[in-house]
Amino acid sequence: MQQISSFEQYQQQYKHSVEKPEEFWAEVAGSFVWTKKWDTVLDWNFTEPKVKWFDGAQCNMSENCLDRHLETKANQTAIIWEPNNPNETFRSLTYKELYEEVCRFANALKKIGITRGDRVCIYLPMIPEAAIAMLACARVGAVHTVVFAGFSSSSLSDRINDCDCKLLITADAVYRGEKKIDLKKIADDALLQTPGIKNCIVYNHRDSPVLMMEGRDIWWTDAVKDCSAENVAEAMQAEDPLFILYTSGSTGKPKGILHTAAGYMVYVAYTFLNVFNYRDKEVFFCTADVGWVTGHSYLVYGPLLNGATTVMFEGIPNYPDHGRFWDVVDKHKVNIFYTAPTAIRSLETYGEAVFKSKDLSSLRVLGTVGEPINEEAWHWYHRNVGKENCPIVDTWWQTETGGVLISPIANVTPLKPAFATLPLPGVQPVLLNETGEEIHGNDVQGNLCIRFPWPGMARTIYGDHNRFHQTYFSTYKNYYFTGDGCRRDEDGYYRITGRVDDVINVSGHRIGTGEVEDAIDEHSLVIETAVVGYPHDIKGQGLYAFVICTGTITDEESLRKEIGKIVAEKIGAFARPDKIQIVAGLPKTRSGKIMRRILRKIAEGDTSNLGDTTTLLDPAVVEQIKAGAL
Ligand code: PRX
After folding, report:
1. Ligand 1 pocket mutation pick from 369, 374, 503 by most atoms within 8 angstroms of CB
2. I want to staple 190 with a disulfide (CB 3.0 to 4.6 A). Which of 4, 157, 512, 616 is the partner?
3. Quick one: fold of 7-486?
4. 139 falls in which pLDDT band (50, 70, 90)?
5. What pTM value is reported for the model?
6. Which CATH architecture fits 507-627?
7. So where are the chain's domains?
8. Which residues line ligand 1 (CB under 6 A)?
């Protein structure tokens, strides 16, 4: 695969990718192992929508991540695992070892009856077994759905049931900092509600006592016992599903975003190589959890497709102290470091003393993802972590896009702090106004859409193609609508301004207001809730809940705690509201629609200009809410 090495080359590649997209992507795809080459490169329309890349081809993701490298990189480290507790020994797996572990586990999956197309849920902590399980699923053609280990049992069972998983893979327990999370216990609660699950494979990570259900639960070590370390990868059709990953939207339950075998593979490999300007033998450290798309694309698949060494860190940035990320960088001589702005902002508050004893000279490229980065945090990162020598790639993308769409190319694109800069080759962004017209020229702002398919894009929402169409392709006809607002400055550089829908981005985690409202409404005293986002110094956005209750509440503090607990149980602790205001009413239009614009303003603390409130059913309600604002 060709690596872009100059800005002129980027411009040429970009031009080529727009003028002759099929030729461009066929060239990129030429670097992979195909059991059978494609009949057509691209077949598409954004009306149904239908998108097929490399149709007729056959390939396997796991074979391309592992087998392909065995000749030249068998003894090179594929994964370095850094444990939560720095005093425990780290693990590393070479490409050969990872290949063997994956083959063994693939054979174990087959032995218990997992075959092509079966859905498998992975609920594991950040341990190499998570990557092994993903790659083994890909190898046998099973579709994995990884659920972030911070999700609650009811979120887990909802996801398992939505895509009808047959198997759950989990671990006994995990420590995150000093906190122990009993994953198997959470899984057991979920499994009470999941009739489709036949088996549960349990990895013994912490020797923590667990209940094993006879006939259903199997220890990982027993599952792989006597399994061969060789396995022939299934030849998958290009458009066979590779994985489903749930993400939150404005309304309704989380959506199972589906990615397919060939296009996703080609796209994440290409973007990893180019965005990070990856060089052979470098160590890449992405701090995202495998439970999110960043973990899928740039911790596991992108690096392994490129034969890179990828660091998997089990812990958290502030344990045992606030210098932990830099310890990991120093210890493993990390060359490329990729994290979320929220982590940078939170570390920023602890000052610069933590850097004193750390050697960060191995670093060459820095990256950010998940939310807009403010200029101040960008400069702090550039100065203290990159020592003003490392380019920062501010990568904009989404679960649905599979890989990065707008980002600088390290060492190639001239940077501008807090700008995702320019589209990658193959990506055709446009800004549209409210009425759906394209906004041309520079120094403009609008809703960010993409007008042409790229190989890594999601193909559907599992089991609900109509919702896929409605959510992404109906707002603007013949465009993919991202849900983000964006500015294109006088130089044509893109700066993402944030969501324009009811999705809130808390610490880089996408949270649907509807989901949190539904959870809060489960409290017996709650009648109605409206949740909005507000600017938060560390998290980017915080959650502000306005709640109407029955009767008179005498102990508001206890009620707030109970509401927080319900949200943690229904969704996960990360979705707990930061502020809960008990209100007598919500600002509604005469047709009963909550005017969130007003609530957002109040949550932001900006009550001077609430706009037109005359259409409200009861304008007095606004004054009451303003008076009690937190
Ligand atoms: O609002 C954008 C924001 O995160 C959303 C996608 O969230 P998710 O699907 O969870 O994927 C996160 C990791 C790719 C986007 O719609 N976002 C992501 N990256 C950036 C960003 N906002 C600004 N700048 C970014 N670099």
Report:
1. 369
2. 157
3. Rossmann fold (3.40.50)
4. very high
5. 0.95
6. 2-Layer Sandwich (3.30)
7. 7-486, 507-627
8. 247, 293-294, 369-372, 394-399, 420, 482-484, 496, 498-499, 505, 510
